Amino acid sequence: SQGALAHDAIRAIKTYGAIPETVYSGLLPGQRKFNHDNLFSELRGYLDSIVFKHSGPLTAPWEPGFVSILDKHMGKAPANFVFNQKKYTPQSFAAEALRFNENDFVYLTSFNHHPFFKTMIPEVPDNFSNGSYYNIPMEEMLKTIKSAVEKGYTVIWDTDVSNDGFQSKKGIALFRKSTATGEVNTQEEEEKWSPALRQQLFENLTTQDDHLMHIVGLEKNKEGKTFFIVKNSWGDAGPYGGFMHVSEAYIAINTITIVLPKAAVDPILLD
Prior knowledge:
- Helix content is 29%, strand content 20%.
- By secondary structure, it is an alpha+beta fold.
């Protein structure tokens, strides 16, 4: 998922519900892979044509035209469907089959320009709904991610993937030294990270909200270095079938926000 923070994705499920992929894949007949370039281009052109013609609030309905473009490129989403011999709407499927409750999730971030242990709104372009996140020190965030994964939970991770240290074809992401060249390897020495450096890279727009992924595991290499196992959404790229080994330093320096189940978080952290 790209182009939105997890807060917006969870809000979308609350508003619109969910549909199993076996019922609605978003692929047109004959398609085997997603390529949304034409969809994005047409949506942008449509929305720009509306926004730039108005200097004030929009009065004419614009949603039907927007939905028709989605239907053209992804197929029309069903209003009702049958799954496991039971009839659902997208909203009832989310509530009954998935048991989805937006209050079951905790939204966390870590930035020095806001007070810790209070909520803040991350100032990033893709925070479309101005979602609030609980701000904690980065060391606490790392501990929280590790603890959640060790308990068997997974973590939604919004991060930057535009730097040389993120190499999906190798299945590795490291916080590389400025002198490093070539392909990454898990044995190379990484740059030392700090909250101050993390803040600096965010403020000079080096670290941005590029991509949303899924932290699903934790392991150490033979040298004892900690890596998070991350499920990417770029198909089966790399040697691990689309999964990546992401270093602790990379997580620390590049994380924008995380979302995880409330049950995975130590209650003391949120008191």
